[in-house]
Amino acid sequence: HVNPLSLCVVEMLWLLLVAALWGATNPLLKKGTVGIEHVKEGSRISQLVAEVKFLFLNIKYLLPFLLNQSGSVVFYITLATTDLSLAVPTVNSLSFLFTLLTGKLLGEDFGGKRAVLGMVLTMLGVTLCVVSSVSEAENADFTP
Questions:
Q1: Distance of alpha carbon 142 from alpha carbon 115, whole angstroms
Q2: Which long-range contacts (CB under 8 A, 24 or more apart) does 98-101 make?
Q3: 90-128 b/e with 16+ CB inside 10 Å = b?
Q4: Residues 47-85: pLDDT tens digits?
Q5: Whole-model pTM over 0.85
Q6: Backbone angle region of 112, left / alpha / beta, with phi > 0 → left and psi within -120 to 50 → alpha
Q7: For the chain, how big is the Rg over CA atoms in Å?
Q8: How many CB atoms lie within 10 A of CB 31?
Q9: What pLDDT is attached to residue 100?
């Protein structure tokens, strides 16, 4: 018999990992695309091929891309055991926070007091979702 609370904690850790992989890689992907605007080819097809080549031969883009995609794999696996109504808002909102924080570390504009207020409200919303999910898991375990 598995304790629903411990299962919920494990699920939240997986969701936190997904959010970190998705959110932290967004600013890195943006940095990795610097210079793509200089890729110029004659036709649309050759332009597309040249841009794909530029991106996938660029380690500054490729590594964050692979990390981002690994987050998608972890998310897909986690959905097998996690409530969808908890997983999606949690990962999306926390990804946003990781994007803001990573961007700040990379020297991007943070957004000031409004961004901080947004992060606080986001964390409050995620906390409410998690508390609600834990309460539902505990109630489901103790019903006769």
A1: 41
A2: 98/19, 98/20, 98/22, 98/23, 98/24, 98/26, 99/23, 99/24, 99/26, 99/27, 101/23, 101/24
A3: bbebbbbbbbbbbbeeeeeeeeeeeeeeebeebeeebee
A4: 999 999 999 999 999 999 999 999 999 999 999 888 887
A5: no
A6: left
A7: 19
A8: 15
A9: 87
Cα–Cα distance for residue pair 81/84, rounded to 1 Å: 9
CA distances from 44 to 38, 47, 49 (A): 15, 5, 9
> 36: which 2 tokens?
């793509």
The 10s digit of each residue's pLDDT in 91-115 is: 988 898 899 889 989 998 877 788 8
How many residues comprise the chain? Answer: 144
Which residues are CB-contacts of 98 (< 8 A; sequence separation ≥ 6)? 19, 20, 22, 23, 24, 26
